[in-house]
């Protein structure tokens, strides 16, 4: 009986341990493209900004109470600027550029988020008293300060630390309208990559500066040739230096980010990892302090589990299904480049998203008013129903997987006849892989993505009733390309190649795990 009791206790202990592990957060914390994170804590609430580059609106602001479960609550801007590249006008685009790594700060009751753009050559600073509701005030100036960290020091001065390899520091004017008149940016660290050795492919960048217990800590990323993304930390007693640096983490290529503390006094580093076609995905690692240095990870490694609450999933916080019954789009949606708001509507036909063509385009990558959401891992699926009765000759509409090597399933109208097609841009040149005659005005479309272990494969389907699905075309081998510099996105689109004024109505957008 005693042995039996011990066995029961042992089994109970094992089950409890397994259950406890199941309730812990797992890396990646967010299995979707949320790169270049910057994070602050206001009381017991965390806020995080990220890069979405050529998407509009841009610089998403996400909120969390536990560092794991995030919801998008705002964007710093609706449109970065009104230029041809951002408007997909005159054959120009801003793929891979737009706005890059942001810096999120809270100072004297005001929230600030700054970013920079290679498209416009400007630095931008947005500010608000209400980070969740806005409105945001915009300041912009030249030059574009690369991968900068906005920093309000205790001496009342405001700085930006920026650069690549050679890191610079500039003092800003009191009204943040630009570099302080009469001042000159100074070299902060001549070679910030030095702690990682002499054989560097990507010099130190992605600066994020923090002040903890009177010391300054500067986080950077570099990439040794033949190695992996590496976290470098420098520290100093004064912001002007001298600075001493060391390699802080070199595991799985998880790097670029900074420090965050909990109300209980626990510390974490927020970082990201390149993970193939799904994009750059966030990881957290625990931080301990030794001799005044933050020590990242567990025995120098990125743990699979974290002593944080379990994730409840990305829907509806980061991605979101949509029935299009509201008067505004959920914050999970972003347009590919600046939209032309005259040619999309949730009101022309209530309960539907209507996309109307306004010009003739030569490529889906140059088509305006493509509405997108992130794909996500390890597997994800998106489905929609589309009414194509309003299409005109030459129109193309459907469900897209957006990157340079794109793929889509949808409808083409040619010489008064509609066809169901699957188009692959896997080689860089769009190729129609299958065509079927379409006799109905309502068609159901689906795209399934597999990012598990970087499989990076996608399949496309159609249905006549939204229940029974048939494969069309062939699997798309997805690839993360630098010209686009973004993980794959689901997209809803309609563009014209001959006539303008055609329209399609999307009934819904449903996301979920890939059906098994």
UniProtKB/TrEMBL annotation:
One GO MF term: hydrolase activity, hydrolyzing O-glycosyl compounds
InterPro entries documented for this protein: ConA-like_dom_sf, GH43_C2, Glyco_hydro_43, Glyco_hydro_beta-prop_sf, Glycosyl_Hydrlase_43
Domain spans labelled Beta-xylosidase C-terminal Concanavalin A-like: 321-510
Pfam assignment, any one: Glyco_hydro_43
Annotated site residues (Important for catalytic activity, responsible for pKa modulation of the active site Glu and correct orientation of both the proton donor and substrate) in this chain: 147
GO BP annotations listed: carbohydrate metabolic process
Residues of the signal peptide: 1-22
Domain of life: Bacteria
Active-site residues, Swiss-Prot/TrEMBL: 36, 205
Family stated for the protein in its record: Belongs to the glycosyl hydrolase 43 family.
PANTHER family, per the entry: BETA-XYLOSIDASE, BETA-XYLOSIDASE-RELATED
Protein name: Family 43 glycosylhydrolase
Organism: Chitinophaga tropicalis
Upper lineage: Bacteria, Pseudomonadati, Bacteroidota, Chitinophagia, Chitinophagales
């Amino acid at each position: 009986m005693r042995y039996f009791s011990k066995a029961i206790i042992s089994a109970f202990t094992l089950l409890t341990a397994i259950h406890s592990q199941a309730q812990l957060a797992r890396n990646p914390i967010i299995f979707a493209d949320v790169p270049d994170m910057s994070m602050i804590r206001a009381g017991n609430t965390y806020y995080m900004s990220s890069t979405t580059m050529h998407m509009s609106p841009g610089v998403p602001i996400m909120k969390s109470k536990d560092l794991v479960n995030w919801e998008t609550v705002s964007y710093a801007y609706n449109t970065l600027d009104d230029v041809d590249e951002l408007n997909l006008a005159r054959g120009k685009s801003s793929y891979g550029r737009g706005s890059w790594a942001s810096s999120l700060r809270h100072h004297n009751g005001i929230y600030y988020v700054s970013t920079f753009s290679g498209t416009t050559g400007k630095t931008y600073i947005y500010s608000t008293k209400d980070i969740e509701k806005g409105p945001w005030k915009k300041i912009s100036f030249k030059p574009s300060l690369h991968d900068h960290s906005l920093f309000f020091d205790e001496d009342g001065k405001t700085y930006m630390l920026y650069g690549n390899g050679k890191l610079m520091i500039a003092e800003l004017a009191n009204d943040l309208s630009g570099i302080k008149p009469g001042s000159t940016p100074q070299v902060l660290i001549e070679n910030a990559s030095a702690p990682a050795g002499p054989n560097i492919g990507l010099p130190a960048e992605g600066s994020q500066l923090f002040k903890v217990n009177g010391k300054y800590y500067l986080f950077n990323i570099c990439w040794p040739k033949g190695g992996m993304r590496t976290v470098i930390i420098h520290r100093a007693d004064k912001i002007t230096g001298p600075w001493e640096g060391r390699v802080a983490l070199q595991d799985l290529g998880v790097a670029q980010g900074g420090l965050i503390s909990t109300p209980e006094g626990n510390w974490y580093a927020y970082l990201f990892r390149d993970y193939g076609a799904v994009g750059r995905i966030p990881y957290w690692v625990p931080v301990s302090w030794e001799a005044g240095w933050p020590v990242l990870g567990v025995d120098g490694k990125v743990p699979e589990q974290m002593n944080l609450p379990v994730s409840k999933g990305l829907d509806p916080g980061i991605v979101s299904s949509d029935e299009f019954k509201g008067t505004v789009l959920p914050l999970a949606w972003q347009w590919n480049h600046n939209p032309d708001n005259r040619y999309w509507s949730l009101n022309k036909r209530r309960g539907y998203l209507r996309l109307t063509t306004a010009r003739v385009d030569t490529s889906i990558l140059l088509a305006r008013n493509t509405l997108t959401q992130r794909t996500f891992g390890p597997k994800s699926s998106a489905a929609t129903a589309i009414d194509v009765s309003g299409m005109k000759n030459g129109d193309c509409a459907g469900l897209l997987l957006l990157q340079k090597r794109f793929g889509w399933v949808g409808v083409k109208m040619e010489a008064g006849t509609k066809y169901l097609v699957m188009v692959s841009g896997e080689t860089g040149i769009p190729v129609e892989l299958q065509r079927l005659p379409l006799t109905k005005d309502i068609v159901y479309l689906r795209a399934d993505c597999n990012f598990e272990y970087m499989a990076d494969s996608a399949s496309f389907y159609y249905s006549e009733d939204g229940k029974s699905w048939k494969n069309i075309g062939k699997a798309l081998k997805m690839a993360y390309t630098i010209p686009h510099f973004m993980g794959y996105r689901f997209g809803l689109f309609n563009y014209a190649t001959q006539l303008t004024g055609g329209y399609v109505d999307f009934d819904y957008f449903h996301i979920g795990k890939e059906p098994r």
